[in-house]
Amino acid sequence: MAKKRTGIDGTRVSSAIDALDEIEPGLQHLSGLITVLKILGEADESIEPIAISSLAGCAGETLDRIEQCWRTAIGGLRGR
Question: Are 60 and 30 spatial neighbours (Cβ–Cβ below 8 Å)?
Answer without folding.
Answer: no
